[in-house]
Amino acid sequence: MNLTVLAASGQTGIALTRQALRRGHTVTAIARDPERITVPDSPNLRKVPGDVNDAAGIAAVIERDSVVLSALGTDRAGILLTGARAVLAAGPQRVIWLGAYGTGASAEAAGEGARVLVKVLGDRLADKVEADNTVLAAGGTVFHAGLLADGPESPRRRTVGLEAAPPFDLGAKVSRETVAAAMLDEAEVPGFAGAVALPLAE
């Protein structure tokens, strides 16, 4: 497949890029500074500069037959919605977006434990929810991951919809490698188009 990884220099983006190449896909990896994409060069890998604040620049590197996998994160409100709009305007085949469990569409399923996110995210919460909803409305898939951790891909990992979501648990972390694997599974065999999916470690 022709895949595009947005925010490919972050830890989750690097995991997505590395695993996608391992699965035999062609990858365009986008980052503001491509030199920070610490994945070995490969004939199937193209590292390109890109900033979501430059929608024209994003459109220039996202091919219409590609599936975009976004690991975009930010400490500033507004960036996620700007990024979602830029990616969708480029017209890719599909978009698979990384969000946070306990926000927006998954807040009710997560329960009382997710209230801590309101304090942690502050004014970024509304931006995150709007970005997710924009992707969902366009038929994309949004992965709501719990607290992210380092470590290998879980051998017992699974992906569920909101109807099977467990309560939010600060101790139930999921590795970035596990999240990346779940997102790539969705790229290869769509199961949650226009819906929220949860990547679980077990």
UniProtKB/TrEMBL annotation:
It comes from the Bacteria. InterPro entries: NAD(P)-bd_dom (IPR016040), NAD(P)-bd_dom_sf (IPR036291), Polyketide_Oxido-like (IPR051606). Residues 8-186 form the NAD(P)-binding domain. It holds the Pfam family NAD_binding_10. This is SDR family oxidoreductase. It comes from Streptomyces pseudovenezuelae.
